[in-house]
Every structure is written in C-alpha cells, then in structure tokens.
Amino acid sequence: MKKTLALILAITTASVIAQPASDSAMIRSIYDHALTRSKCYENLEYLSNTIGPRLSGSAQAERAVIYSKKLMEEYGFDRVFLQEVMVPHWVRGAKEEAYFISANKKETVQICALGGSVATPAKGIKAPVIEVKSQEELEKLGKEAVAGKIVFFNRPMDPRFIETFNAYSGAVDQRSRGAIWAAKMGAVGVIVRSMSLKIHRAPHTGAMRYEDGVTKIPAAAISTYDADLLSAQLKKRTVTEFWFKQSCQTLPDVLSYNVIGEIKGSEFPDEIIVVGGHLDSWDLGTGAHDDGAGCVQSVEVLRTFKELGIKPRHTLRAVLFMNEENGLKGGLKYAELAKENGEKHLAAIETDAGGFSPRGFGIEAEQRIVSKIQGWRSLLEPYGLNDIRAGWSGADIGPLKPQGPALIGFMPDSQRYFDVHHAATDTFDAINKRELELGAASMAALVYLIDTYGL
Q1: Domain residue spans in the chain?
Q2: Segment (H or E) for 222
Q3: How far is CA 440 from CA 45, 89, 303, in A?
Q4: Which of 96, 300, 324, 364 does the annotation list as catalytic?
Q5: Nearest CA to 299 among 444, 452, 88, 455?
Q6: Any catalytic annotation for residue 437?
Q7: Which CATH architecture is the domain 31-90+252-453 placed in?
Q8: 50-66, pLDDT tens digit by residue?
Q9: Of all helices (H) and strands (E), which one includes residue 26?
Q10: Residue 61, by phi and psi: left (phi above 0), alpha (psi -120 to 50) or beta?
Q11: Could you tell me the fold of the domain covering 95-247?
Q12: In the predicted model, is pLDDT for residue 18 greater than 90?
C-alpha cells in the first residue's frame, strides 16, 4: 500500500513539474512565431495608411469592415461574420481656426472640434475668454461673470501619476462635460486643454456630451502648447477676445458592423474566449495606436493558433468592435446579441491602450480568478508581463460584465500613449514593429493559458 501511494505521489509530482515545462515551451513558440512570422505590422500598415482614419459612419470605416472581414476569411478561421449595428455619424468639416487678441496683436492657436460638438456660426464666435480648472471654480464665478463669454478649461493631466491612464481619467471630465457646465452658466463656447502630457501644438479631440434642456454650445480642444500660451497671457491681463470657427455637424445614424472571426473549440465549443479591439478611430490621425493596433493584434492571436496548430478547447473569437470612440454602440450590440443568443463567455480580453511594450493585464473578476491568473506569473514574467492585477479591462467588453465572464485589459507601457491619443500624431510611423508583435504574443499566451486551464 505504501509503495502504491508512493508511486501515485511520484507520478503526480512528475506531472505537476512537467506541465509548466510544456506550457513554457508552448509560450516560447508563440513568441518565436510573433517575432518572426507575425502579420500584424503589415496588416496595420494597410489599415492605417491605405484605409486611414475610420470615424464611425465614414466611408473609411466601411472599407475597414470589408478589409478585416476578408482578411480573417483568408486566414481560414472557422467562421467569419458581421453583426449589424447603427452608429452615430459626426463629421468635422473644414479645418478649424482660432486666435486670441493680446495687447492688440492676433495670436493664432491650434484647435480641433470635440467629437459631437455643434458648429459655430459661419463667421465664428468672438467673445471675452475666462480660464478655469474645474466645474467648481466655474460655478464660483457666478452666471454674471460667465454669461456671454468663452470658457477655457485648463486643468492639465496630473504628471505625478506613473500610470498615465489615471492622469487622463482625472482630467477628462472637463472635455466630456465642460460644454454642459459652461452653457448652464450662460457661456457661448468652450475651449478645453487637450488631454495630453506632452507639450506640443497638436490638439487632441475626443467625445463630448450635451444634456437635454441645456443649450448646445460649440466645444473645441486647444493644443497643450497653445493652452499654456493663452494661460500666460491671461495672467498678464492682456487678452481681450478669443475667436474660433468650426463647421462640424451630426448626420443621421449609419448602419455599420462589428467584424468577428472564430475558431471553434474542440471540447467546449459553447464556451467563448474573446480577444478584441475597436475598428473605428478618430479622424485627425489614422488610428494606428487607437485602435488599429488592438484590431490587428486580436486577429493575430487567432492566426497564431492556426499557424502553430494549436487546437483550442474553447471557442476563440477575435471581435473588432465598431464605434467605441463616440458611442460604444458596437460593444453594447455585441453584449445584447450574446445574451439574446444564450452565449456563454468564459473570458474577454480587450486591447485598447496602444501598440507599446507589454507590461501586464488588468482583471475585472472575482478574486479567485485574479489569483489564478496571477499564478501563471512565472510563465509570463520572462516576456515583460510583470503587472498582473485587479483593475480596468476595457470599454467595449464592459457591457458583457452582467453575463459573468472574466474581463481582462491588456496593459502596454502607457508613457507615450497620450502623446498621440486622439491626435493627428496617431499615425503608422509612431508604431514600433517589435512592440506591436510582442503585444500580440502576450495576448495569445494568456489566451492559451485560459484555454488550457480554464477559469
């Protein structure tokens, strides 16, 4: 009996020791493939340079749907299909113009309309400008001081945060809701400091909101360089007026699509692991980092499984969501149809933080699942994935949360992301090929572990 027990223990111990070695070899092969045979860099070059900016409702967004569907079909995924979704159609129009008058001199500044804003009158808006850093500061001024003026929100992203997404979340309310706050006080327009830690002359756009019953006033972002310039002149009390002109408009909603590629699971075909990014982008740049990178990485995860002959136990899906930037309609529609069709999602991984060097994963799930994924740290740390923790996952997969899957956000290094985020500088030449490929491999490695051991 003792010999039998000893033999069982020896076999069990040997299998436990052997398994990590097998996983380690598989993950090594995933990274080898990514760094020698990946297609994500050339696919992103086409998406970014040939198709270009892909704002929801645009002709380029439609071309991106056609291209990505054809690409996944060519890769031989088991199923490739589209999900219909109605999306907003906002257009920028002619390039925006702006200047301020200081000491009787005209100082031209760089601005861009915020996504969803209304236009100015054809001749533009000219009015005195007042600078504030918050809603509270604005309200303390009182309606009499604000009425008829242009409000300049100038609260910078806090550079003390090491994680720059925390700096972004601490400043973005003035972009998203500033026009509502200012309109309630009688302002005629809003200028908002761009959401960037970099001091440069490229303004950064992004979504803003209006509120029913509150006058819609034009809203624009001003570059960080010009925000500092305007603020300095305001402190000298030399600025008399600010003028800006923009011709954006909101058109009727347009039919678009989520694009989905799938490899059927061999053991649990009804349990789904999603990896995805958003296919739409803002219109100033070409959406290379935000989020062309995430889209091509997601497709590459499934392609890697096929190329290496890995037969997944669960069904794998690459989902390219439409309309994350100014509506989240694609993510909402995907979750709605998943519930309607009775689909079971084991996990959903989103990559929407740029194509930079991998750092780890943020996990929205019960602690048991967080701990299980952290238990794979020794397999992932050799590839720079040191930061595995409970945290934010992603906007597009967020609507799936009530259905119970683990939601996971891929976290690349964030230090340079807001240099290009929503700006004309988000172009293919800002992409590093090796970093992009390492990101695709990182997600493929995590998908492999989830598929092998479950959650």
Answers
A1: 31-90+252-453, 95-247
A2: strand 219-222
A3: 15, 31, 10
A4: 324
A5: 444
A6: no
A7: 3-Layer(aba) Sandwich (3.40)
A8: 999 999 999 999 999 99
A9: helix 2-37
A10: alpha
A11: Glucose Oxidase; domain 1 (3.50.30)
A12: no
